[in-house]
Amino acid sequence: MNLGMLLDRNARYLGGKTALVFEEQRPTFAELDRHVNRAANALYAAGLRKEDKLAAFLPNSLELYLLYWVAAKTGAVAVPLSTLLRGPGLASLLSDSESAALVASPGLAETVEAVGSQLSIPTERRFLTEKTGAPDGRAGGTPSRLLLTLPRRTQGSAPTTSTTSSTAAERRACPRASS
User: Fold this and answer.
1) Which band of pLDDT confidence, cut at 50, 70 and 90, is reported for residue 4?
2) Would residue 77 count as lying in a domain?
3) 53 forms bridges with which residues in the sheet?
4) CB 147 within 8 A of CB 55
5) Using CA atoms, how far apart are residues 155 and 128, in angstroms rounded to an integer?
6) Strand pairing class (126-128; 53-57)
7) If we measure between CA atoms, which residue out of 155, 177, 142, 168 comes closest to residue 34?
8) Residue 72 is part of a domain; what is its CATH number?
9) Is 0.85 surpassed by the pTM of this model?
10) Residue 169 lies in a domain
11) Quick check: 132 and 6 in contact, CB under 8 A?
C-alpha cells in the first residue's frame, strides 16, 4: 500500500469518523476522500501527470493539508511556496521548480495575477481553493477553476456526507492515482 491509498482505505472503513480537527472544522474521512478525489480528478483533467510538480501558494490551512493528499494520490510532487513571496521572487520560484500547476488561496489571487504573464504555468492549470466574487471561482481571470473546498462543519454538527450525493468520479481518484 502506498500513501495515496491510505485515505481511500480510511474512508472505506472509517468513513463517518472525524478525520482531523483544524480550527473549527471537523471533516470525516469520507468527506476528505471525496474532496481530495474531486481535486485530483480536476488536476488530471487539466493535464497534471505523475511526477509533475504541483505548486501550493497557500497559507496554513485545511486546503494545504488536502493538497498534500492530492499529491500523494496523483503521484505529483508538492511544491510548497511561502505566502510572503511577491513579484519576481514568486515567478522565479515557480519557474525554477518547473511546476506544472498552481493552487492558490483567493487572498493571493492578485499576487498570482501580477506575475501571470511571467509564468510558464498555463491559466487552465491555475486554481483557487474557494469561491470568490465571481460565480465560477475565478479571481481576476487568473486561476481558472475552483479546487479543494470543504463544507464548514463544527463539532456536534452532522456530517455532510449523509445529505450530499456524490458522483462516481468524486468517490474515486484519477486513473493514475493507484499506479
Assistant:
1) confident
2) yes
3) 77, 99
4) no
5) 26
6) unpaired
7) 168
8) 3.40.50.980
9) no
10) no
11) no
Measured between alpha carbons, how far is 78 from 68 in angstroms, rounded to an integer?
6
Q: Are 9 and 136 in contact (CB under 8 A)?
A: no
Amino acid at residue number 161: T
In a domain, 58, yes or no: yes
Judged by DSSP in three states, 137 sits in coil
Q: Is 137 inside a domain boundary?
A: yes
Measure the CA angle with vertex 32, ends 2 and 25; round to 5°. Answer: 135
pLDDT tens, 118-167? 999 998 899 988 754 444 443 333 344 566 554 443 444 443 333 333 45
Grid cell 501558494 in the structure block, residue: 57
Q: How many domains does the chain have?
A: 1
Q: Which residues contact 73 (CB under 8 A, 6 or more apart)?
A: 4, 7, 36, 37, 40, 173, 174, 177
Hey, what amino acid is at 167? T
Give the domain extent around 137.
Answer: 3-152
Helix (H, G, I), strand (E, B) or coil at 55: strand
